[in-house]
Write a structure and sequence with these properties.
By secondary structure, the chain is of the alpha+beta class. It has helices at residues 2-13, 21-28, 36-91, 103-106, 136-140, 144-164, 177-188, 196-200, 248-259, 265-280, 294-297, 316-319, 321-331; strands spanning 204-206, 213-224, 230-240, 244-246, 262-263, 284-293, 308-315. One of its GO terms (molecular function) is zinc ion binding.
Length: 336
């Protein structure tokens, strides 16, 4: 009995191990037919190799497309430069950087912007306005009598506004307010009356300079088209010349022209960048605007100090991370 119990006890303490399938395959040794595990690993390796090849091919295709796009841009820029130079030879040549406009410039000999602009661009419309509104031409071409009538119509509308908010347009402090506001609003939207070729004038010069040019912290003031209340901020503009440079003050003038309209900041940013790109066809243009909108600080959510930042990157600034990063670093520099 004792021996039987010990045997049972001993048998109960023994843990039997079943050999794994892998061990069985290893013990069986090589055979003509590969094992299921080896087949699975082999097919997985082949799949990974094919996937890797597809990935490499996709990268090569993308790189080739980028090179083709860059080549097409370079060819287009070269054709534009040649067209502009031929036009200059026929009309009297460049004034030269920093030079005073001579007789040939006064009679149309200076370089004309927007020559050779992209097909379908909104900039080189026949009136040179760039994104004109429905009534822009009527305002631009108005006679003195028509301007006076427009101002009076606007003043009458302001009287209605004053009445609607519960005021008396005839009291001493408000008698002249409608006329004052009419003149002020027409001035604050004077960008509708400015032609881009006139804004730039003859301030385009031939220069063998291909490094970044930046003018930052340009003050802008505009009216939000949603509530017609002001928004204000600063715009920084950068571009990489392609044999032509633009007078520095003209960058600010372009920003001023588009900001003196009813605007949204997103569109304003894009319009400034596109106008510069179409004017001189640089290798790239970058525009960043940081502004505060009174439509969200003095009304609505009432969050003073909230800033809106928008950007528009064209050409080299869009294609190259390093170029874009250099521009952003320079405009964010603490050296003020």
């Amino acid at each position: 009995m004792s021996d039987s119990k010990d045997t049972q006890t001993g048998a109960a303490s023994v843990r039997l191990h079943q050999p794994s399938p892998l061990a069985a395959e290893i013990a069986a040794g090589p055979s003509d037919e590969p094992s299921p595990l080896v087949s699975h690993l082999s097919s997985s390796a082949e799949g990974m190799a094919q996937s890797s090849q597809h990935s490499i091919q996709a990268e090569r295709d993308y790189a080739a497309a980028q090179r083709n796009e860059a080549r097409e841009d370079a060819d287009e820029l070269h054709q534009f430069r040649m067209l502009a130079l031929e036009r200059q030879k026929a009309t009297g040549g460049f004034a030269g950087a920093g030079a005073q406009a001579g007789p040939s410039q006064a009679t149309g000999g200076a370089f004309e912007p927007f020559v050779g602009s992209r097909v379908g661009s909104p900039i080189p419309d026949k009136n040179g306005l760039g994104w004109p509104g429905k009534g822009t031409l009527a305002r631009l071409n108005a006679t003195p009598e028509e301007r006076q009538a427009r101002e009076q119509k606007l003043a009458d509308a302001v009287k209605v506004l004053l009445e609607c908010i519960g005021e008396d347009p005839e009291r001493d402090g408000l008698i002249k307010t409608p006329e004052r506001y009419a003149k002020a609003l027409l001035w604050m939207t004077k960008g509708y009356e400015e032609r881009l070729p006139d804004v730039i004038g003859n301030a385009i010069f031939a220069e063998d300079h291909e490094e970044m040019v930046i003018v930052r912290d340009i003050d802008i003031f505009s009216l939000c088209e949603h509530h017609m209340v002001p928004f204000a901020g600063k715009v920084s503009i950068g571009y990489i010349p392609n044999k032509f440079v633009l007078g520095l003050s003209k960058l600010a003038r372009i920003a001023e022209t588009f900001s003196r309209r009813l605007q949204v900041q997103e569109r304003l940013t894009k319009q400034i960048a596109t106008a510069i790109d179409e004017a001189i066809r640089p290798m790239g243009v970058a525009v960043v605007i940081e502004a505060t909108h009174q439509c969200m600080t003095m009304r609505g959510v009432q969050k003073p100090g909230a800033a809106t930042i928008t950007s528009s990157m064209l050409g080299a600034f869009r294609r190259s991370d390093k170029t874009r990063a250099e521009f952003m670093s320079l405009i964010r520099s603490s050296q003020r």
